[in-house]
User: What shape does this take?
Amino acid sequence: MDVGSIYDVPLSYHEQGFDTEVCRHFGLLEKESVRSWVWQRISDIVAKPEGSVKIAIVGKYTSLLDLYKSLAEALTHGGIANKIKVELVWMNSEIFESEDTVQHLEGVNGIWSLVDLGTGAEGKISAVKFARERHVPYFGICFGMQMALLKRLET
Assistant: This one.
């Protein structure tokens, strides 16, 4: 099956009658099968969103995307619910320790700081500072929130 998006798969199955066969196999009424209009709506939003937001995901292990699959999908689903595309920009927090934070974070609509400890703390603090000074929403999880609190106590 070749589809444009994973959210098109249920529609493709429905068009092939696969949902009816699954319902028949499990003894479910056909009316309980896939509500294709719901999936069509989702597919339409994914294909033609009404807007977009760019969220920087800042952490130490951002090259391991599978590690944060549930976070990425949750943000995508939040975007679908709001009819927008969520563009995720994965950034290693350690780059902010040696490079200008502004050049990397300019243009983002939000910063999500991941759970990780140890190195990269100064980079996370730089991201917090950027967010505070530019009024960019900042979402800190665990260590990311601790860095936000440390920065707040500094000022």
